[in-house]
Structures are given as structure tokens and as C-alpha cells.
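This section describes the prediction task in plain terms. A model, or a person checking by hand, is given the sequence of a single protein chain and must write out its three-dimensional structure as a string of C-alpha cells. No templates, partner chains or ligands are provided. The sample shown here is typical of the held-out split.
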Amino acid sequence: METDTTHQSPTVPQFSVFLQNRVGALLSVVKLLHDAQILVLGISLQDSVDVTVARLVVSDPDQVGTLFIERGIPYVKNDVLVVQLKEGAEGFGKCLTAFLQAETNIHIAYPLLAQPGGFSAIVMHVEDIDLGASVLTAKGYKVLKQNDISR
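The expected answer:
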């Protein structure tokens, strides 16, 4: 009997979507997801002259990959950590200190739009995902899984 480990991982999938830098490009992707009943739970934008990279954490990552392939939307899927900050903004500084002490880099960080359990949360793409998860757990942080942030 196979065990489903999809929702047991301490990581959450992040989709980096490559959009033409034009008015309405992001809206069309968000509308596509909305029409498929998928929520954007976290978003970060990196804009340049000719392309925008939208990094998304969503409520149904399995369906998003299929949807993007069907629609020909270029994307890359990476694993990220989602960290619950029970102390709010003060917890963010302590979280960063934990990474500094472990001498590991944070490549990307942005807040989650949803508040799982009523607490703030931050999405982090770190240099070493396993080390990052263990450092945060050792410091008492809750590293959220996909089923913690999806409805």
C-alpha cells in the first residue's frame, strides 16, 4: 500500500509564472485560477522591462500545474517554506536571526495573504530547504504544510 506523502512534506510548492510585461497580464492569470476555484494564498512580483515573474502559493498546487500546462503558461515549480509567525512582526526578526545563526541564505521572502490559524505567515525560499525547516523547527517555529494553508 502506497502512502500519500504530498501533504506531509514541510515544504509548499511555489509557482514562478513568467508574464509579458503588459497591462492585465497578472489579472488574466489570477482570473484563470479563480475560475478554476483556486485561491492565490501568497504572491510576490519581480518586474523588469520585458517580463514579470509572479511567484504564487496557491490553494490547489496539483491542479495549477495541469492548468498552466494546458494553457501554455510558462512556469517553474519550486519548494518553499511557509513559517507561522505567532509573534507577528517581532517573530520575523527572530526568524531571520535563526537563519543567520545557521549561516544559510534566504533567496526570496514574502507574506502569505491568508492567515492560517489567525496568525501571520511568511513564505521563504531558502538556500537549503531541509536545513531551513530543521532550524525553524528547533527554534520553536511551526513550518506549515500545504494542508495547513489550503481550505
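For orientation: Helices lie at 25-35, 61-71, 89-101, 129-138, 146-149.
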